[in-house]
Predict the 3D structure of the following.
Amino acid sequence: MEESLSEWEFYYNCYKSHSSPNGKTLQEEHLELLHETPLWEDVDKIFDSKKECIASHNYQGAYRVKILKPSL
C-alpha cells in the first residue's frame, strides 16, 4: 500500500498536469520558481515576530489557538 501511494505521489507531482499552474506539472512549477524562493536562513534574518507570525502546517489548529488566545 505504501509503495502504491509513493508511486501515485510521484506521478501527481512530476507527470500530471494541473490547471492552476498553467497546465504545468507541480515539479515544473517548482523548478521554475526555485530561484525566487528564499532559503530559511534568508527569511530568518528579516523576520520580525512583532509584525508577523509564521503559520504552522497545521494552520487550522493554529488558527483555533489564535482565536482563543489573540495575543499569539
Remarks:
- Residues 2-14 form the longest helix (13 residues).
- The mean pLDDT is 79.
- The two ends are 40 Å apart (CA to CA).
- Residues 2-68 form one domain.
